[in-house]
Amino acid sequence: MILVLFGPPGAGKGTQGARIADAVGIPNVSTGAIFRGLAAAGTEVGTQALGYMKRGELVPDQIVVDLVKERIAQPDCEKGFLLDGFPRTIAQAEILDTMLADLGLGIDAVLNFDVAEDLLIERLSGRRTCITCGATYHVVAVPPKVDGTCDACGADLVQRPDDMPESIRTRLREYAAKTEPVLGYYGAKGSLKNIEAIGSPEDVFASVTAVVQSLD
Ligand code: AP5
Fold this sequence. Notes:
By secondary structure, this protein is α/β, with parallel strands linked by helices.
C-alpha cells in the first residue's frame, strides 16, 4: 500500500503517520524527520536543508526528490510505504507519479488532514519534540507523563526551531502558496480522501482507519 499524508503544518500528519505505519505494517517516510536526522548528523544535505527549515521555507524540490527516491528504493519499502510531508509542490507530485510509474506502482490514497488555521497555530506553538527519538507531544493535548521528558526514551523535550511564531507564519504562507495547489492535482486524479482532523488523536485515527480499511 502506498499512502500520502497531506495537510498544513501542525495538522497531525506525524502523529497519525506513526500510528498508521504501525497498523498497516509499512514504513513511515517523513521528509521533515529525515532532514532533521541528517542535520543532527551534520551531513552536507542536512545542513543545507536546515537553513530553509529554520526559516519555515520549503527545501528546493531537487534535494527532496533525490532523498525520497533513495529512501523508497530501500528493501523495507518493498511492501509499500507512507509518505508524510511529500509531495509538497506540484513539481514534486508529478515527479513522484513518474517515479512510481517507472516501478509499476501508484498511490492508493492521499489522506488530506483538514484543520482550521487557529487550531494549527495552537498545535504548533504547544508542540514539544524529543531530542533523541523524535516523539512528539503537546503541552496540553498530548502531555508527557513527566514534564519535559520523553515517555518513550527519557530524553529531554524541546521546541522545534520552526515552531517559533515567525517560522510558523512563513510555513503557513508557504503551504498556501505552494502546497495547497497540490490538492487540485490529486482531486483531479480521484485519489484524494478528506479527513476532518479535529478531535483527539484517537478520534482522528478512527477516521483514518475507516478510510484505509475502505481501500482494501
Ligand atoms: P515537516 O516536519 O514535514 O513539518 P510540517 O509539514 O510543517 O508538519 P509538522 O511536523 O509541523 O506537523 P504535523 O502535521 O506532522 O503535526 P504533528 O503530528 O507534529 O517539515 C519540516 C520542514 O522540512 C518544512 O517546513 C520544509 O522546510 C522541509 N520539508 C519537509 N518536506 C519537504 C518537502 N516535501 N518539500 C520541501 N521541503 C520539505 O502535530 C502537531 C502538534 O499537534 C503536536 O504537538 C501534536 O502532539 C499535536 N496534535 C496532533 N494531533 C492532535 C489532535 N488530534 N488533537 C490535539 N493535538 C494534536
